Amino acid sequence: MIALSKPIIGDEEKQAVMRVLDSGMIAQGPEVAAFEDEFSRFVEGHHCIAVNSGTSALHLGLLASGVECGHEVIIPSFTFAATANAVSLCGATPVFVDINTDTFTMDPAAVEAAITENTSAIMPVHLYGHPAEMDSLTEICSRKGLTLLEDAAQAHLATYKSQPVGTFGTAAFSFYPTKNMTSGEGGMIVTADDEIARKAKLLRNQGMEVRYQNEVVGFNNRMTDIHAAIGRVQLGKLRERTTRRQENASFLSKNLPSVTTPVTNSDVEHVFHQYTIKTERRDRLSEYLTQSNIGNGVYYPTPVHELPSFGKEIDLPNTKTAAQQALSIPVHPLLTQDELNTIVEAINAWS
């Protein structure tokens, strides 16, 4: 089986974990602080606050930015449910909008049309590693006085007009095992705002900066030093592995004429967390690839607004089409040239 994705854990990560275990400092400590500092260098020196998951990063980033009960947050429906869950966990209401057909990212015109007097924030998702249209979205936020929060869970090292994603507003990254880098599990809140950074640090640690001096009601969303140690090793390999993903994506795009291959806008750097093609016969292709021992996945088969947890009856035609046609195929950095050839040959033979 050619795997769709897999965590890449080697001896360096194992040695880092053993170093932490031998130190006796297992909970949030010096490894977390070092990981935050090292990650900050990739996001223009912004504050970085490590937490225990990407969902926690979204949730605490929203809370620290002032999102609360009665607010509305505009998000795309074509995303993982965590984007919407984080909004709801704040007591706010997710307002779902449509996407652009080419890039699978939030349509700024749809965002503009969805703004109401209750809108407090806009949260674009840099889906599959392709940045959203940040010029338009930042302009809307500036003109309307709205908060911008980036769901960058899939977009480590992606750039928009040479600016790293995660630096346009407050942002959340994920280090889930199948992301472009992992800490085993974890997330990172990124912000240039001193007060948001302070609030996020309070919220992740039971409302404390100083031990037993609880200032607000908070959570236990800390990252452990074990996870941070893994993340530090992975971060050191991220650029090389991203380049490999991009090379694999380029090969696939040049050799798959029978399906619609991913679009990469000229002003962005796409980091290909997923390589997602489109075909009207998606389900048949997926079954064929599985029978051919080629991993593949549908991200996402049901738009979030249609999930039982939200159940909204709204018309989002581009989102509906994407959910019916999108299929992700392997692009990860461990692929060999023989495996890439096999993927191409299989898809072209099927078509």
What does this structure look like?
With 351 residues, the protein is of the alpha/beta class. The protein has helices spanning 11-23, 30-40, 54-64, 81-89, 108-114, 134-144, 194-204, 225-255, 282-291, 317-325, 337-350, and strands at 47-51, 72-76, 93-97, 119-122, 147-151, 159-160, 163-164, 170-174, 187-191, 268-269, 275-278, 326-329. The chain folds into 2 domains: 11-97 and 104-232, Type I PLP-dependent aspartate aminotransferase-like (Major domain) (Aspartate Aminotransferase, domain 2), CATH 3.40.640.10; 238-350, Aspartate Aminotransferase, domain 1. It contains 11 helices and 12 strands. Strand 6 (159-160) and strand 7 (163-164) form a beta hairpin. The two termini are 21 Å apart. 49% of the residues are buried.
Q: Helicity, in percent? A: 25-40%
Kindly identify the CATH topology of the largest domain: Aspartate Aminotransferase, domain 2
Number of helices: 11
Quickly name the level 1 CATH class of the largest domain: Alpha Beta
- The spatial strand order of the largest sheet comes to 1-9-8-5-4-2-3
Q: Could you tell me the strand content as a percent range? A: 5-15%
What's the β-strand tally?
A: 12
Gyration radius from CA atoms, angstroms: 20 Å
Number of spatially distinct domains: 2
Q: Which oligomeric state applies?
A: single chain
The CATH architecture of the largest domain comes to 3-Layer(aba) Sandwich
Describe the largest sheet: 7 strands, mixed
Succession of helices and strands: HHEHEHEHEHEEEEEHHEEHHEH
CATH superfamily of the largest domain: Type I PLP-dependent aspartate aminotransferase-like (Major domain)
Query: Taking all residues together, what is the mean pLDDT?
Result: 97
Low-confidence stretches: none
